[in-house]
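Field: sequence (string)
Field: structure_tokens (string)

Example rows 1 and 2, in order.
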Amino acid sequence: MRSIWKGSISFGLVTIPVKVYSATEQRDVSFHQVHREDGGRIKYKRVCSVDGEEVPYADIAKGYELPSGEMVILTDEDFADLPLSSSRRIDVLQFVEQEEVDPIYFAKSYYLEPDAQGAKPYVLLRDALESSEQVAIVKIALRQRESLATLRVRGGVFVLETMLWPDEVRTPDFPFLEEDIEVRKQELSMATSLIESMEGDFDPSEYKDAYREALQAVIDAKIEGREVARPAEEAAEEPAADLLSALRASVEAAKKSRGGEKAGEKAPAKKAPARKKSSSSGGAKKETAKKEPAKGRGRKSA
């Protein structure tokens, strides 16, 4: 990996020099636009819509369009006067419980690596933060944009999760939220049974991008000059007569599916409802128990 940013974590009077790396990458199959007849790459020119002339990159500015259609042109000097921090610091603002930050705010993840001289304070803050079971709320100026972010520990490394600002999260203003929709007790019980029958520990390696694999197979076949086999389409299931019947059929199908996956394996012991959840196999089922209301400190809104 190659670092995309260098700076420091500012924690009180402690400064920890770090390098920032992108923690994720897209694995989509990329394409170029080409001429169908000869495979030539398609090129675009920057042409002015007013005079039709090609415009050199050096003469291109940023424009903000008004509702009237008029354009406000901004220059490099205009952007130079903006209050964007250039200190290259990750300022720690406060520490909060991780559950207080709604995941909808998260934008992108980055790894933080300490410089040689910052290894000890890095490990000190990492261990303290991990033992507190909290996350740090920080502010960082990254790629010409100031962002809030969280700082947490994953696999012994700090992970910086940049966040959206509150006014960037839309409100779900859907009509059905104002409707008085009645759910019968039997339907709710059956839906709960379906959820319980599909419980398991999350293992991301169990899932795959079937579309990407099929697309890559098409490309490989084109390269090798052979025919591509089209997978057989699954037979469409008959729709259930009503919601309760659909839920009941789904529960039965889930039980059969999970029973097949665990065929021949020794059934694991059930978890005691009063104990704290710990790592276990995906096939282990939980005993249904009535939960007592949580007695914890009130959570602040994110």
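Row 2 begins here:
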Amino acid sequence: MNMNMGAAAVQTSTMPRPTGAPAASQTPAMPRQAGAAFTEAKTEAADAELVFDINKLNLHYGSFHGLKDVSIRIERNKIMALIGPSGCGKSTFLRTLNRMNDLIPYVSIDGLVCFDGKDIYGRNYDVTDLRKKVGMVFQKPNPFPKTVFDNITYGPKIHGKKNRKQLDEIVERTLKEVALWDEVKDRLHKPALGLSGGQQQRLCIARCLAVEPEVILMDEPTSALDPVATLKIEELMDGLREKYTIIIVTHNMQQAGRISNETAFFLHGEIVEIGDTETIFSTPTNKKTEEYITGRFG
């Protein structure tokens, strides 16, 4: 399955779903391993500064153990970079944070994934609301085959906003937030697919912001862009951290060092090391981390 296409169907619960995909509101709770019992009482004491508190997260694709006892705490209004070689579990972990793995057959999860103090895999958790609050931006820009205006207003309309003046304000606000307003204000009602790759990616970020999320998940958002467009996205992320928490998967070590507050190094489905980005890149405590960062493998 092409995850950019299938997963895109549930981006912040605003994107049209592909034929046969379950509606977000109908997504069943992910199956847990036997013996995993968690209560809402355990999550009520979550630290107000934490947006995600993950404890002993395990994920299986059938018999394959994709994530192994992952524990991580992610603070509000910070940028967390997830690094590691291909296939190490970074993107799989990212998708657990807004339950996009629900779309993949034979996936099972156990452990605790708390968002704002509540277990997102708990019984009766509102997945539609989760995907509104935890948006996603993919590796390749994926604007809808609609106008720039309709791309941004699609999500707000789904969530009940119909007033034209209000929608106009949302479009202008979000396009200014991603530094795209001056470039497209005269072509709001023209096809979004006519924009450049970098502009399309910023449009997708604006579309995410239009439903006012708390967290933005980014899965290698600049890997398909040229250096100039990459720099614009990085500058944008630096400004967005004032209002949002950003969790980004990247293979670009220089990028991780430039933009993130904290870095987690994944290997074989496990977190090998996590900490302040400057410390991780200058004096890592694990030899594997040092070897990866210095390019000896991966």
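free_text_note (row 2): Confidence is low (pLDDT under 50) at residues 1-46.
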